[in-house]
Amino acid sequence: MKHDQISSDRRSLLRLALALGAATTVHLVAADPAGTPVRPGGEPPAPASGPPARAQAGPGTYRLRPMTSTAPPRFRPATPPVRTRPFEELPELGRDAMVLSFDDGPDPRYTPGILATLRTYDVRAMFFVCGGMAADNADLLREMADDGHVVGNHSWSHPLIPKLSRAGIRDELGSTSEVIEKTLGAPPLWYRAPYGAWNRNSFEIGAAMGMEPMAWTVDTLDWTTPGTDTIVRRVKKGAAPGVVVLSHDAGGDRSQSVAALRRYLPALIERGYRPTVPHRS
Question: How many C-beta neighbours within 10 Å does residue 24 have?
């Protein structure tokens, strides 16, 4: 993510994403008892860190076996169906629940500040990590899990998924899942397509890997660095039961995102919202 400019390709992408199919209403999510999906939107590409995804794992082995087969019982939910659209909101979590999510990390410059704020208020969040960043910052990945946050798959190098072959999608998702499972001892159960751009191949491959697709409801557009006040205002304006808020903890200067969380999180709690995370059952 070396640039934060909105391109004409992104506008075309948004039209593509909007044309794709929303998650059907199912009752497979529940709020995290320890803790107190989205509309297509935009974000800058994440930097590729480390070797290409295909060099990280050979095709046909890990990616094609059930990713939860050797995990502890609590990480062994039923294989999800193939969706036609991602989850954009999670009303099943309750009237006072919201989900905060952060993409593209972990980044040692910004992720620690976000984790510290979440810890201060005893709140859990979802982190959709890029494989290259996760491989380079395994300590932060473990810190996320130790604090009870949900670690999801955001591809290896943040590509435009609809432009990839099925093998390419398997490489991007499979390599990232391998890093997460190797580091945390369990594979991710959720994934988010870069740019919010999904296609049938990604839904099929994600489901085969045991993952559900998660999008978002409220896009802070923090990657455009609109100012801390603007980010805070967008979150507070979009607050509602079951919404999923999209922010970033990597991919550029995310100091505004870190500062905004310190302000809007206590404000949400004061308004009676309970930021939490979904658990699959």
Answer: 10
Residue 62 contacts residue 182 (beta carbons within 8 Å): no
pTM comes to 0.78
- Please tell me the predicted confidence (pLDDT) of residue 198: 97
d(CA 144, CA 179): 14
Q: Give the SS3 label for residue 214.
A: strand
Q: Which of 103, 107, 219, 249 is catalytic?
A: 103
Express each pLDDT in 52-66 by its tens digit.
333 333 333 333 333
Q: Which of 149, 154, 158, 248 is catalytic?
A: 248
Which pair of tokens denotes residue 149?
A: 């946050």
Q: Looking at residue 35, what is its pLDDT?
A: 37
Distance CA 232, CA 220 (A): 8
Residue 171 is which amino acid?
D
Residue 103 bears catalytic tag = yes
Q: Are strands 212-213 and 190-191 parallel, antiparallel or unpaired?
A: parallel
Task: Give the span between the Cα atoms of 238 and 233, in whole angstroms.
Answer: 8
Respond yes or no: is residue 27 known to be catalytic.
no
Angle between helical axes of 138-146 and 166-184 (0-180°, round to 10):
70
d(Cα 140, Cα 142) in Å, to the nearest integer? 5
E-assigned strand segments in 51-179: 97-103, 126-129, 150-153
